[in-house]
Amino acid sequence: MLRYAALSLARLTLCAAALACNLLSAPEAATAFPTTAPPADDGSRPQVAIEAPLSGAQVVAGEQLIVRVRAVDSIGITRAELREGERVVAIQPAPEPSREFQALLPYTPRQTGALALSVVAYRRAVASAPAVLTLQVVAPAGATQRAAQVCTALVNVNTLNLRGGDSTGAQIVAKLALGERLSVLGRNSSATWYRVQRANGQSGWVSAQYIISEGDCANAPIVQP
Fold first, then answer.
1. 150 DSSP assignment
2. Residue numbers of the domain that contains 206
3. pTM surpassing 0.90?
4. Are residues 70 and 120 in the same domain?
5. Using one digit for the tens of pLDDT, what is the confidence trace for 192-213?
6. Own/partner pairs for 86-95, CB < 8 Å, 24+ apart?
C-alpha cells in the first residue's frame, strides 16, 4: 500500500514538472501583443507637373508671376517647392497630406534673360523628380506707378477651408477653390489669419499660409474674430 502511494506521488510530481517546463518554454506566447504598423511606403515617388505658365513664355522683370502646379502621390503630398537653380524661392505646404495636391507658387524675377525654374513635390522626405520650367524675362515696357491697391488674396491650394474664426479649431463654413480671389476685410493682430469675403458675399477667415496676398495688405485693419 505504501509502495502504491509513493508511485502515485512520483507520477504527480513528474506531471507538474512537465507542465511547468511547457509554460516556461513559451514566453513569446504569453507576451505577444498585437501591434499596429505605420502606413507602409510602397516604394513609389510623388509626381509633379507645372500647369502654368507654359515653358518658353515671356514674363516681365519686377512683376510677380504665379506658377501653378499639380502633384499626385499614392500616399499623400505634404509640400511643394519652387526652385531657381539650387535655391528654394517658394514653399507651399499642404494643409493635410493629399493624394492630389494643387498649388500656386509666387515668384518675382529681377533680371532679364533666360530663367530656369523647377518644382519638386514631397511626401514627407520622399521627393519627386523635378518639373522644369524655362521662361524669358523681359524688361518692363515703360516705368509705371501703381496706385495703392485694396488688399486681396488669392487661394493657392485646392480645397482650402474658410473658417468662422482665426484658428484651425474654428468651424469650417466653406471650401475654397484653387485660384479663387478674395477681398480682404481685415486681419488678426499677428497677420497669420485674414478675414475675407468671397464674390458671393460669404465671409470668413483663412490662414495666411495658404494665400497669396496682393495690394496694400500691410494696412489691412485688425479685426476681432
1. P
2. 152-214
3. no
4. yes
5. 999 999 999 999 999 999 999 9
6. 89/117, 92/156, 92/157, 92/210, 93/209, 94/157, 95/157, 95/159, 95/160, 95/161, 95/210
